[in-house]
């Protein structure tokens, strides 16, 4: 396999699983070929719509049979990573956060102790970074994202109007955090926060219910307004500091006796 690229060689030369008789399991070879294709996509920077080499070319490149390659491609197609059609080379599919979403939701739910704490451990630093990067976009030469100022101002008004609406406010709360992640300009950061949106929304609903129960509605709203104002002012230090305070306040509120 001297002609293989380094990524493919790493996957295909890794120790393989053996059955009870010491025979190389067929599935392990297809799995390793699958990982090698993933490495190829990443290494060559292939984007949505870009074609992969033909089945024959991949088989020759990886030193495996066409059948093994077809099994590997079928597995990747089932995961939504590539698209396979008869008579044509497989192509890379657009990014889909559903796999990450599924994994993170499972990982958070299976974390030791409180799942909300696990969510906040993941979410907190990302939210702080997103707020800083969003404010950066409004600083300096005024080259802010198109329509972003109006969207944030509209959200500010809608949050104000919905403060006493226990059903609507958590929806707008989530929308605000999603907007900030989008304004960060970091697609990976936005994707990670988007991937935890389902458990995050449930947590926001639970927090609001607790606030209603104890007459503490409004504290989180003050943080939201300060974060929006700091972003609109192009003040990354204040935006990140207030977001960090907001994250600590939410976690402290939910973990208090």
Automatic annotation (TrEMBL):
Pfam families named in the record: FCD, GntR
Keywords in alphabetical order: DNA-binding, Transcription, Transcription regulation
InterPro entries for this protein: GntR_C, TF_FadR/GntR_C, Tscrpt_reg_HTH_GntR, WH-like_DNA-bd_sf, WH_DNA-bd_sf
Stretches assigned to the HTH gntR-type domain: 27-95
Positions of the UniProt region annotated as Disordered: 1-25
SMART domains xrefs: FCD, HTH_GNTR
Keyword DNA repair annotated: no
GO molecular function (one): DNA-binding transcription factor activity
Name the UniProt record assigns to this protein: HTH gntR-type domain-containing protein
Organism this protein belongs to: Brachybacterium vulturis
Organism phylogeny: Bacteria, Bacillati, Actinomycetota, Actinomycetes, Micrococcales
């Amino acid at each position: 396999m001297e002609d293989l690229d380094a990524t493919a060689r790493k996957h295909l030369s890794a120790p393989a699983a053996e059955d009870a008789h010491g025979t190389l399991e067929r599935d392990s070879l297809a799995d390793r070929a699958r990982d090698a294709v993933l490495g190829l996509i990443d290494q060559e920077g292939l984007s949505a719509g870009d074609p992969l080499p033909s089945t024959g070319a991949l088989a020759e490149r990886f030193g495996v049979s066409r059948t093994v390659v077809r099994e590997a491609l079928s597995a990747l197609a089932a995961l939504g990573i590539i698209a396979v059609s008869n008579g044509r080379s497989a192509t890379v599919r657009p990014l889909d956060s559903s796999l990450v979403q599924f994994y993170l939701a499972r990982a958070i739910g299976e974390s030791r102790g409180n799942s909300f704490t696990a969510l906040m451990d993941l979410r907190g630093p990302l939210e702080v970074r997103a707020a800083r990067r969003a404010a950066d976009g409004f600083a300096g030469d005024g080259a802010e994202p198109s329509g972003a100022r109006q969207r944030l101002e509209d959200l500010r008004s809608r949050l104000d109007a919905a403060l006493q609406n226990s059903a609507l406010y958590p929806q707008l709360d989530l929308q605000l955090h999603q907007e900030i992640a989008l304004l960060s300009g970091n697609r990976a950061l936005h994707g990670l926060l988007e991937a935890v949106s389902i458990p995050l929304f449930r947590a926001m609903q639970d927090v609001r219910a607790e606030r209603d129960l104890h007459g503490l509605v409004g504290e989180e709203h003050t943080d939201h307004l300060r974060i929006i104002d700091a972003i609109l002012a192009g003040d990354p230090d204040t935006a990140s500091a207030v977001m960090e305070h907001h994250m600590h306040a939410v976690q402290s509120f939910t973990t208090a006796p």
